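User: Hi! I'm working on a homework problem where we have to compare a predicted structure to a textbook description. Could you give me the structure for the chain below?
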Amino acid sequence: MDPSLLGSLSPDAVREALPDLLSRFVGDESEQAPSASLLRQLLAERTDAELADMLEHLSAVGDEPKIYRAEPTCQRLVRAWSQRLLTLEVIGVKHLVSALAAGPTALLGNHLSYFDTCALDCALAWSGQEDAAARIVAAAGPKVYADPFRRFVASSLNTLPVPQSTSFAHTEPLSPRELARRAQASVQTAHQALRDGLALLIYPEGSRSRSTRLTPFLPAVRRYLELDGLQVVPVAVSGTERFLPVDDVRVHPGSVRVAFGTPIAVSARGGREALDHAYEALSALLPEAYQPLGG
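Assistant: Happy to help. Predicted structure tokens:
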């Protein structure tokens, strides 16, 4: 579906079609009907005006290089839908809370699935840290907004569209000049967001790991870390590669682990050294099967 057409749907059409549409993305057929029932109930509680706002957001999210705040109806639906399908283990959330209290904070995580950011959001919300969840903005590549399902899930989160490295075959071909221009603009937007009290979530590998093991960080990520007073919190996610696999469009009910590590002060290290330190810290935080080979 062309995302621009979403804005032309009526609230009643959304109440009728959306529960069945989203439930088709559940791999366990026995969960499809209960999932649709839950979504139908939640949508019945939203006013026409709220659903119209949701459709307007969905039709435009990701189109401009700016921060998109989570759309309330999408967030309510995705969190409730995820709670039915997902079992979460959350470790070390105190590290993130302390970093946020101290000042500008960036999170660097491993990347396994398009569901990684949702898992982190749910981990915080279900741990009683909704204020922390509300401050996180995920740097998101173009494919996050590429189809209606991903766009709906992305709309439940705070996101910042960023250009993806042209070293990956699936990315839009850009000239070096245009890539540099877009990258610089996203860094500036991210730094302003950090100054404004938001926290930036980055996946420095640049793409989802196909082996589940942590892969090298892109050196250019250091530019996002070059801000006075910034702290970096490593966050290790495991299990999302089974919940929403790289080669599947459906989610599969299961367990996910989210672990936050000790904050790393950037000012004493500089962006490049902080990035290297974060890689080492994240490697140690991951279960053995997710650690880099030879690491």
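For your comparison, note the following. Residues 176-195 form the longest helix (20 residues). Strands lie at 86-91, 105-109, 136-140, 158-161, 199-202, 231-238, 254-260, 264-265. Good luck with the assignment!
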